[in-house]
Write a structure and sequence with these properties.
Elements (H helix, E strand, L loop, with lengths): L1 H24 L8 E3 L2 E3 L6 E5 L6 E6 L3 H20 L2 H17 L1 H12 L3 H23 L5 E3 L5 E9 L2 E5 L7 H13 L2 E5 L5 H13 L7 E3 L4 H13 L3 E7 L2 H11 L5 E5 L4 E5 L5 H12 L10 E7 H16 L19 H16 L3 E4 L3 E2 L8 E2 L2 E4 L6 H4 L6 E7 L2 H8 L4 E2 L1 E5 L3 H10 L4 E4 L14 E2 L2 E2 L7 H4 L2 E9 L2
Helix pairs in contact: 2-8, 3-5, 3-6, 3-7, 4-5, 4-7, 5-6, 8-9, 10-11
EC number: 1.2.1.24
Enzyme class: oxidoreductase
Pathway: Amino-acid degradation; 4-aminobutanoate degradation
Length: 511
Amino acid sequence: MHLLLSSQIARTLLSLSSRAMSLSSYKSLLREKAFVNGQWVNAANGESFPVYNPANGELVCKVPDMGAADATAAIAHAQVAFEAWRGKTPSQRAALLHSWERLIQDRCEDLAALMTLENGKPLAESRGEVAYGASFIRWFAEEGIRVTGQTLQGPTPDKRIFTLKQPQGVCGMITPWNFPAAMITRKAGAALAAGCTVVIKPAEDTPLTALALCQLAADALLPPGALNVVTCSRSRAAEVGRVLTTDPAVKHVSFTGSTDTGKLLLAQASSTVKRVTMELGGNAPFIVFDSADVDKAVAGLIQAKFRNTGQTCVCPNRIFLQRRVSQKFLAKLCERVAEMKVGDGFEAGTQLGPLINAAAESKLERLLADAKQRGGRVLAGGQSVKVGSGAGHFFQPTVVSGLGRDSACFREEIFGPLVAAFEFDSEADVVELANDCRVGLAGYFYSADVGQCWRVAEQLNVGMVGVNESMVSSCIAPFGGWNESGLGSESGVGYGIEEYLNLKTVVLNLA
């Protein structure tokens, strides 16, 4: 008994010690000013806005609440910096990007702690995101060196045609709160490697990770003006976004976020015919056929659905189970869900952190109420959870079955730890159900039938498909959606960097 108590006390002390170390380590990268032209600056209006820890509602710090004038100034500095940055060779730019990537890897613990503090995701997930984010910088540093054109014989013997790929210019980037490091590095890494300069507006909930990345970029000796971050509150987001999408000096806008906001930004960007990359909302199907390895499918769903507490754009949203395997799958899933720990991201063993804010919690409650009203059965979870002071917004991992396509869970992106299960009879039926959607970012299915794997992968109207696999994103693979899930591709061999390059044709007369 005494040994058991001693062991429990030791684990508790270790957990508290790890938490204290994590919470203190982030301070070395905490910045309370925006980063423009290599300088830490306040807003021109002198105002600031608060950043809170979503796990407990505590104030972390305040950062500048910038407006249109600040965004315009940042763009002007980026335009000046562009002329020198584009003049560097791809190898020179790559060397600086590699230095930035190494510093990010070296400061992984500090960055992860800062991310968990402002985003809430478990510390282990934050560490994973730091490594994932760094991989994009490393990848694009090498991609920049491999950018090439073509030389062609002209239509007559005295002509030669060749193509050049040249950087577009200043790129405006609007990034989300759910992956505050990786969504910046995936965009900025590509643009910088191509020879562009960038102005980033990070999400108001998570600006601190963006600013920490700027500090490491400065330490890596990226030149002033190449990387700029303009911070602003939710009330000024539209104002700053409008500048990034309409200023003629900005040649490209990259956005990750909701489809509705993406449509608005697209309309604004059309005023100056900017190039755009849009990674918008998803409503991913996750299909389990009766030939599937059920244990593998359950593990895959757990990994993809509950990462970042279900707050990801490629998160499985509509879970389609072939009738013969449905009960077995749900029973195993509920066993796993019952074991999951909800809590503060700094606490050892936490698998689900808080939702980002009260609106996210209210949305889950509304979706769950709608599901019950339409005959859905709650098999696991189903309610909010009080953790610590009770100021955070935590929700149990929840499983609901017996739903139809009339439910809100079928039509809306859930963005939380709620599994909405639907049954189907045939391959043709489930493909039709999966494609009954205006968006098409990712899709997943599990099957042991090789022919079925080929057929369904080809028939799903999405940009990315996981076949017996639940993780579809990496620096190697193109990332992008179909239909109202966006435009363009991020990452991948050639694709991601091409977004930031202009193609020029040169015809040379030899006569």
